[in-house]
DNA sequence: CAATTTCTTGGTAGCGCTACCATCCCCTTC
DNA sequence: GAAGGGGATGGTAGCGCTACCAAGAAATTG
């Protein structure tokens, strides 16, 4: 009876303490903090003073419990170390840093099952919004997204049938544009080298294939892929394989920039002239591509911008106004550089 | 009165629903889930069946409120895109993926103030543990860590006076080892090139300086630094600057691998022979270093392992058994490669 | 000036869970 | 056989906050 308050809490001031000190009801403090417009100027000032003096910070857990909604964005990406997703995540963090929302990040390791599991963990938290990479969720994952009861933004791709909202670009078109560029540059026996063939890489491959077939240049032996995770060393290895298979190879469109850089290094080592003997095109256009020697042609993808836009759309949806566009295609850009300047 | 339950919750089953169905008290369900050993085999089975049938998942927010402790690890890193921290974070995620703990990641952008702000946001959540990068917290941040009321692990460095626990390695020793290696390899006019001179880079520079002074080779003009964030293009630029200042430069120890790769590319472009005319050493040993041509000498740092160990120590502390070692030095390893094989 | 609307403010009752304490039962122990 | 101990189970009372509803004051209306 003596100190009922300090029993469990760590002695941190609660909303009741602030209310007492400011001489108002607890609910008014709550309102002053969340909807200042609905509290009179006078009380607001008084309450603010009490908050400052006490160093009061609302307990997000209590808040989430009472309002059945946590101020949390759930974010699901397939990799934390892949620079591409790191950039998307950075865009999300930057856009949310001035908001009350926290971020809960999940790493799916490119696994649909892991994605399901994480969605199951995120759900009970009642996040304010969910941002997930890709559009190839398992049926279960898709159902979890549909029934999450919050805005959902799928990112990195474009497509006709998002769960809710979608921001990205067409990997198929990107793959095609890269390949067409190489064809225009005069390359004929153009290989495709791809590691970790996730759905997006598959679509890039499809774009490559379309372009090659249209030009009557397609040959299945030109395609070298592996499910192994992408890396620079792997790029070197796959390029050696590709060259062994097709010694007359004239160029390669790489699944991503790591692979492209591996190819470049292997060319250096084997004293193969780039772009004369072999042309190289990457995908994503990490900043190292323009600094490499020779600089490497790549498809610039708007990763950071995707993160920002996803948050903007989610925020709009949370505040009630559904964005006019549910599907946003941010496009990509071909950056022509020395590696394909034949 | 008619449907008091569905008023606010989303109709999700609660612990009371499970208890009713299993014919036990709510508290027993709670116990069966958290401390199965304290509930009889029979009831446990019964409860599990009810949980499965209802699809019950505990509400983490309610749990956190009632127990004054959230199952959350707060993690603070200075960058999300820097591969070094991405690896640490990956280690943390991998170590926690089978645990009930969620992760709340904060990006300090290398700013002490931002770190304070994030700590202030994390605190009220009552995280189960905090993992923060570096040992150079502001006094305020340090106080926040000390009063967080949970295990705290500082990572990436080593030092005598951690807030609580510490896992990392000595950047000073790393910088010295790299420099000594270059001296032994026969280089004399060895430059230091560093971008974003955060505290860790400062210590690497100090290690470089120590080694150079010991060998009576130090000259302030050999040092080229900038507060600008590190990148491969910047490495090229800084190397050009360094060379302009000291045309007789024989080698460079780079603050990190991005810079080193930039230097390598610039050497290619300017047709400077590596390692003959210029030797290059990086720091961190990202996997591209061994694949570059020529391959680049670097200091291998145990980033992933640091993340794992930090979690292991925090977990031990949470379960009561303070680890015998509060300070763990995981060391580093010099990887000699072609870029310094004179 | 009464009636109505709008704005402020507060009280009450939970949100779903767990800490704490009480109870009950079964087994030892002397 | 009574007393004591330990394990299993449950009831009660919050954790700190906000949704909902009510009420009074102020502003607007006819």
Give a quick set of tags describing it:
homodimer; alpha/beta; 434 Repressor (Amino-terminal Domain); 6-stranded parallel beta sheet; 14% strand; elongated; DNA-binding
How would you characterize the overall build of this protein?
- Two copies of one chain form a homodimer.
- Chain A has 342 residues and is an alpha/beta fold.
- Chain A has three domains: 15-58, lambda repressor-like DNA-binding domains (434 Repressor (Amino-terminal Domain), Orthogonal Bundle), CATH 1.10.260.40; 69-169 and 303-332, Rossmann fold, CATH 3.40.50.2300; 171-300, 3-Layer(aba) Sandwich (Rossmann fold).
- In chain A, 44% of the residues lie in helices and 14% in strands.
- The first copy, chain A, has 13 helices and twelve strands.
- Chain A has helices at 15-22, 26-34, 41-54, 60-67, 83-96, 112-122, 139-146, 171-184, 199-214, 232-245, 257-269, 288-291, 303-318, and strands at residues 72-77, 102-107, 129-133, 152-155, 165-168, 190-194, 223-225, 251-254, 279-281, 298-300, 327-329, 333-335.
- In chain A, strand 8 (251-254), helix 11 (257-269) and strand 9 (279-281) form a beta-alpha-beta unit.
- The model of chain A is unreliable at 1-7 (pLDDT under 50).
- The interface between A and B is large, with 53 and 53 residues.
- Chain A binds a DNA duplex (30 and 30 nucleotides) through residues 4, 7-9, 14-16, 24-28, 30-31, 34, 38-40, 43, 58-59, 61-68.
Can you tell me the overall shape of chain A?
elongated
Low-confidence stretches of chain A: 1-7
What is the CA-based Rg of chain A, rounded?
26 Å
* Strand order within the widest beta sheet of chain A: 2-1-3-4-5-11
SS content category of chain A? alpha/beta
* Assembly category: homodimer
Number of strands of chain A: 12
- Write out the CATH superfamily name of the largest domain in chain A: Response regulator
């Amino acid at each position: 009876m003596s100190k009922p308050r300090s029993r469990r809490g760590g002695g941190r001031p609660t909303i009741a303490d602030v209310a007492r000190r400011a001489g108002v009801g607890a609910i008014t403090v709550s309102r002053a903090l969340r909807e200042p417009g609905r509290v009179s100027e006078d009380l607001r000032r008084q309450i603010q003073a009490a908050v400052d003096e006490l160093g009061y910070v609302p307990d997000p857990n209590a808040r989430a419990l009472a309002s059945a909604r946590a101020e949390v964005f759930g974010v699901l990406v397939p990799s934390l170390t892949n620079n591409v997703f790191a950039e998307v995540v950075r865009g999300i963090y930057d856009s949310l840093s001035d908001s009350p929302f926290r971020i809960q990040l999940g790493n799916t390791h490119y696994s649909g099952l892991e994605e399901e599991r994480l969605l199951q963990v995120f759900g009970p938290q009642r996040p304010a919004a969910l941002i997930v990479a890709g559009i190839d969720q398992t049926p279960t994952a898709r159902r979890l997204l549909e029934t999450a009861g919050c805005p959902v933004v799928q990112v990195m791709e474009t497509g006709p049938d998002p769960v809710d909202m979608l921001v990205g670009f067409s990997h198929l078109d990107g793959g095609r544009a890269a390949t067409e560029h190489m064809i225009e540059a005069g390359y004929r026996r153009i290989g495709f080298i791809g590691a970790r063939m996730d759905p997006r890489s598959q679509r890039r491959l499809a774009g490559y294939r379309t372009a090659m077939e249209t030009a009557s240049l397609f040959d299945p032996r030109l395609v070298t892929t592996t499910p192994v995770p992408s890396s620079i060393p792997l790029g070197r290895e796959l390029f050696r394989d590709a060259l062994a298979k097709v010694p007359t190879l004239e160029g390669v469109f790489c699944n991503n920039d790591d692979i492209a850089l591996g190819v470049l290094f292997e060319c250096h080592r084997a004293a193969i002239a780039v772009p004369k003997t072999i042309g190289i095109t990457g995908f994503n256009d990490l900043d190292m591509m323009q600094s490499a020697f020779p600089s490497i042609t790549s498809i610039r993808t708007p990763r950071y911008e995707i993160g920002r836009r996803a948050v903007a759309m989610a925020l709009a949806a949370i505040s009630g106004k559904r964005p006019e566009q549910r599907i946003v295609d941010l496009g990509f850009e071909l950056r022509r550089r020395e590696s394909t300047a034949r």
